[in-house]
Give the backbone structure.
Amino acid sequence: MSTSELSPPEPRRTGHITLRNLSKRFAAGAAPAVDNINLDIASGEFMTLLGPSGSGKTTTLNMIAGFIRPTSGRVELDGRDVSRLPPHRRGLGMVFQHYALFPHLSVAENVAFPLRRRRVPAPEIRRRVADVLALVGLTGYEHRRPNALSGGQQQRVALARAVVFNPPVLLMDEPLSALDKNLRERLRDEIAAMHRELGITFVFVTHDQEEALALSDRIAVFHKGAIEQVGTPQDLYRAPASLFVARFLGNSNVFQGRIRRTGEGTLLEGDGFVIRVPEQALEPNGSGAVVVRPENVTLAPDGSSPEPETNALGATVTDIVYQGAYQLIKFDTDCGVRGAARAAPGMLPHVRVGGRVMAHWPVERSVLIPQNGIRGDHDEQ
């Protein structure tokens, strides 16, 4: 009887991660670093854990990796509880913020290290190292030492080492934060291409909203140890569930007041303004806020009549900030709320600092956030 007949084959690992009621306290009586989170990451998905410093995202990644043991709850990989397994028994790839390369080893030796630990035959090691160096664009750099490489090249070596042994999951902790802007954008594109090529699960930690929006299939937004919202980049940007998410993911105009249902529809009423909002299944007469993105605001000449189905407020322009492809026009509304609009340079010749304008936007671009989404304002920034 063969060995395969004596024992069932090892189940195929697909990289499906489930976090169930996961919490971490670093000291008794201390506030939780991660507070009872639940998250399901599909096999092959690019999931980003996004949030400010201290929000719990890196602690969560380290619990997935096995470097930190949960206080309660569990981490599941393909349905198996791995919460008590050490990192080397989880078989996950990991890329750190500061590369963690061996300075005395060549590029090829650094990349081959996890294969040698797994006792992979030498010919297979040479083949895999050559393949993965080609994937990250480092063919020809095999014999160089890390100190002879640029920061971007070192990060490519770290990526190659993390995937050379075919892990089901690649975990990345702020891998681009030490790079300059142009290099960061280029390597970001390469990480996206690598995800498409490999088809494995990527879990990416960052505080950079632009990175998260550009890379992710879905984003989990962390705030004070909890997950505020999970969704696609488009969902989170267009329909934030809380003021924290709205403010963390880009600029927002925010109006706070009371929600009122009338025969004409749903209104948000505040000091000196009434804003019409799309119909939602909300309790009337409660507190709420309306979020409007700057690119949805048009600044018309003062006294002009807004189009039907728009909201309009008089305002005074306070600043015009040139930002390359567009300019951010800041204004104070007559009701005392500060706001901003975004437009291409030269598109609004009537707008000048100190001038009067009419700020208006379509009703359907007014995102209504009820009272339970106003807690925990954006105090980290």
